[in-house]
């Protein structure tokens, strides 16, 4: 129990600090890198909550695919003009504070007043069980074996296609 | 998992191609002369899978937890894909030499796209249809741009990719809505529930989105604009594959889904929509093709109008219509591959001889090629005794049985219009003198592939009854 609490506090601190760093850095590339750190810490927290599938999806989809796209766009476009709009118009900053505040109040309301985790219906408990590695692995290798193999071939073909189109020089 | 060894044997065509892809990758890694070796290996596995699936046509079963159907018309479609791909491979052997040295991956992508087509034709679950569609499309995007030095090819590849991804979005939204309302992706379960779901607007919207997304892949009316540019820009052999294998696979996925729904008691809910897209595809394809000077663009518009004829089979919504579509796909695959094969032989080193004027006086310079191309043109125009005539005949008969006589008449009018631009090529070859000299390329494998397709077109035209009886017996 104690170990769990220590890990949770460490991950939560990393997530909170990296989230603050994302919005305060002036260089967008560094902001994006801190966002990856934030996603990683969140994935760790999901694991602590026994939501293994969401943790893996968080790493693969958010920290992997979406962040790569973010970095590509930032590095290709060099959004210098966006910075000017942000500093010249103070209204955007106030708007950001208001939206952030609303989301914060919502979370406080949910966690401390509604307390959904105390009154769990059996369906919800079951759906939490469905996200474990065993359940998903069993499904993948029995009922969905053919789609699983097909997805493998799909990724293989995509890799070969990308190689053919992007390789610099053929002997 | 397989329940018994028979299920493994039933799935063997797919396993042959899947294992072939992996073996080809190993050959590509270790062999110095990989391009020749992989090409002949591809021909071997395509022919093996085609013949095996034709031999086991009677072993119908549903395997792998209701994911895949085998036997029956699925195997006939496997034969069309694999035999078509074998012809494309034989045509490519000499053709892609002018592109540089990177042929190894070309054949691996070809094999992968055929595997995707087979997933689509055999699917019993919307998951498999989507994965097959993506596997086929991703290989096609890469194949369209395989010649990276030509700007045209890059443009074709990018255009095909952007529009194809857009169309895939429609298919995924459709599947998501169907899954949300039916709570299953199994096609049999959805068909069983169709009666109660047909009142649900979200479910109907899902099926419509699904059909709209697929009308991109079959090159039908609302999404036909990409076809001429992509066919013109990509390599001729690959354009042949797009117009035959790719179209046949998308039609087979529609037969699996829409055809299954039509066989339920509710009748044909989507008839008006299908009639509209078939009429516009036929007329736009036939009329615009008249104005084309580039033979690849002409065949692209003709492929749009052929998609229109086949959709008549869906609009008729009876088993004769579906059987007619499968026969039409077989006929269209071989006659169109033959025509593209001859274009590949004639177009020359820098792909300069693509104008229809290059065909003037071909009968004097190369009587064999001229005769073969005439066979394909007559067949595409739908003149007996070639396969194309009987494809149209069965579809129109199905439409008349479904009391859509006016649609059948429109189809006949449209094919009468199309006779003009098909026969113009024949007239040019036999009754005009050459305006300029063109140097023909020698390719024995390519010529062999063209002759094989011509023989198949004639065989399907001489004995259509036994083929259509075999197909009908599975509905």
Would you write up a description of this structure?
The complex is a heterodimer of chains A (171) and B (475). Chain A is 84% helix and 0% strand. With 171 residues, chain A is mainly alpha-helical. In chain A, helix 2 (28-48) packs antiparallel against helix 3 (52-77). Chain B has a domain at 270-475. Helix content of chain B is 76%, strand content 1%. Chain A binds chain B through residues 142-147, 149-151, 153-154, 156-158, 160-165, 167, 170-171, and chain B through 1, 18, 21, 25, 64-65, 67-68, 100-102, 105-106, 108-109, 112-113, 115-116, 119, 125, 127-128, 131-132, 134-135, 138-139, 141-142, 145-146, 148, 157.
Q: What is the rounded Rg of chain A?
A: 21 Å
By DSSP, the count of extended strands of chain B is 2
CATH classification class of the largest domain in chain A: Mainly Alpha
The two chains with the largest interface, and their residue counts, are: A-B, 23 and 35 residues
Give the biggest beta sheet of chain A.
Answer: none
Rg of chain B, nearest Å: 21 Å
Mean pLDDT of chain B: 89
Shape of chain A: flat
Order of SSEs of chain B: HHHEEHHHHHHHHHHHHHHHHHH
CATH architecture of the largest domain in chain A: Up-down Bundle
Percent of residues in helices of chain B comes to over 70%
Structural class of chain B: mainly alpha
End-to-end C-alpha gap of chain B: 27 Å
Task: Please give a handful of descriptors for the protein shown.
heterodimer; A: 171 residues; mainly alpha; Four Helix Bundle (Hemerythrin (Met), subunit A); 3 domains; 8 helices; flat; B: 475 residues; two-stranded antiparallel sheet; 76% helix; globular
Topology, element by element:
The complex is a heterodimer of chains A (171) and B (475).
Chain A: H1 2-24, H2 28-48, H3 52-77, H4 80-88, H5 90-114, H6 122-129, H7 133-141, H8 145-166
Chain B: H1 5-10, H2 12-30, H3 34-55, E1 61-63, E2 68-70, H4 73-95, H5 104-122, H6 126-144, H7 151-182, H8 187-192, H9 194-197, H10 201-217, H11 226-233, H12 236-262, H13 271-290, H14 295-316, H15 319-346, H16 362-365, H17 367-381, H18 387-401, H19 405-431, H20 444-462, H21 464-472
Antiparallel strand pairs in B: 1-2
Helix pairs in contact in B: 2-3, 2-5, 3-4, 3-5, 4-5, 4-12, 4-15, 4-20, 5-6, 5-12, 6-7, 6-12, 7-10, 7-11, 10-12, 11-12, 11-14, 12-14, 12-15, 13-14, 13-19, 14-15, 14-18, 14-19, 15-17, 15-18, 15-20, 15-21, 17-19, 17-20, 18-19, 18-20
């Amino acid at each position: 129990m104690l170990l769990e609490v220590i890990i949770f506090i460490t991950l939560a601190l990393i997530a909170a600090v990296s989230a603050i760093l994302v919005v305060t850095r002036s260089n967008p590339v560094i902001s994006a890198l801190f966002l990856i750190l934030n996603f990683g810490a969140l994935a760790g927290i999901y694991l602590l909550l026994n939501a293994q599938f969401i943790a893996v999806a968080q790493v693969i989809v958010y920290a992997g695919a979406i962040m790569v796209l973010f970095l590509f766009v930032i590095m290709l476009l060099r959004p210098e003009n966006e910075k000017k709009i942000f500093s010249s118009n103070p209204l955007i900053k106030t708007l950001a504070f208001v939206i952030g505040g609303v989301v914060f109040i919502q979370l406080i309301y949910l966690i401390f007043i509604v307390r959904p985790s105390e009154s769990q219906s059996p369906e919800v408990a079951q759906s939490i069980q469905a996200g474990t590695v065993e359940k998903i692995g069993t499904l993948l290798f029995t009922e969905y074996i053919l789609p699983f193999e097909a997805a493998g071939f799909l990724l293989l073909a995509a890799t070969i296609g990308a190689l053919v189109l992007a390789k610099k020089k053929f002997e | 998992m397989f329940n018994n060894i028979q299920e493994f044997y039933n799935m063997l065509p797919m396993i042959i191609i899947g294992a072939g892809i992996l073996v080809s990758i190993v050959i590509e890694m270790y062999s110095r002369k990989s391009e020749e070796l992989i090409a002949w290996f591809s021909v071997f596995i395509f022919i093996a899978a085609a013949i095996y699936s034709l031999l086991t046509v009677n072993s119908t079963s549903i395997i792998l937890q209701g994911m895949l159907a085998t036997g029956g018309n699925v195997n006939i479609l496997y034969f069309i894909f694999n035999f078509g791909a074998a012809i494309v491979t034989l045509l490519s052997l000499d053709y892609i030499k002018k592109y540089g040295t990177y042929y190894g991956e070309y054949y691996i992508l070809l094999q992968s796209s055929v595997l995707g087509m087979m997933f689509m034709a055999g699917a019993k679950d919307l998951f498999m249809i989507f994965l097959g569609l993506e596997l086929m499309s991703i290989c096609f995007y890469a194949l369209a741009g395989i010649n990276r030095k030509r700007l045209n090819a890059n443009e074709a590849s990018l255009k095909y990719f952007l529009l194809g991804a857009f169309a895939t979005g429609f298919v995924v939204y459709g599947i998501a809505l169907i899954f949300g309302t039916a709570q299953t992706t199994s096609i049999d379960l959805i068909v069983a529930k169709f009666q109660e779901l047909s009142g649900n607007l979200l479910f109907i919207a899902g099926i419509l989105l699904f059909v709209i997304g697929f009308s991109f892949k079959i090159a039908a009316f609302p999404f036909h604009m990409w076809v001429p540019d992509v066919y013109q820009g990509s390599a001729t052999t690959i354009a042949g594959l797009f117009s035959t294998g790719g179209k046949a696979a998308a039609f087979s996925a529609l037969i699996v889904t829409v055809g299954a729904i039509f066989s339920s008691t509710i009748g044909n809910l989507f008839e008006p929509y299908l009639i509209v897209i078939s009429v516009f595809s036929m007329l736009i394809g036939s009329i615009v093709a008249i104005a084309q000077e580039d033979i690849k663009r002409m065949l692209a518009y003709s492929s749009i109008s052929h998609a229109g004829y086949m959709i008549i089979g869906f609009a008729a919504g009876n088993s004769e219509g579906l059987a007619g579509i499968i026969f039409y796909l077989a006929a269209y695959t071989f006659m169109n591959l033959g025509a593209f094969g001859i274009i590949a032989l004639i177009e020359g080193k820098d792909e300069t001889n693509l104008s229809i004027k290059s065909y003037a006086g071909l009968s004097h310079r190369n009587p064999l090629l001229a005769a073969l191309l005439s066979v394909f043109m007559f067949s595409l125009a739908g003149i007996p005794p070639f396969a194309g005539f009987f494809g149209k005949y069965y579809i129109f008969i199905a439409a008349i049985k479904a009391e859509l006589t006016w649609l059948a008449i429109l189809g006949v009018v449209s094919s009468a219009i199309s006779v003009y631009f098909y026969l113009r090529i024949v007239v040019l070859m036999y009754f005009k003198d050459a305006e300029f000299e063109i140097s023909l390329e020698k390719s024995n494998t390519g010529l062999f592939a063209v002759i094989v397709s011509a023989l198949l077109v004639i065989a399907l035209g001489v004995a259509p009854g036994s083929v259509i009886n075999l197909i009908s017996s599975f509905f």
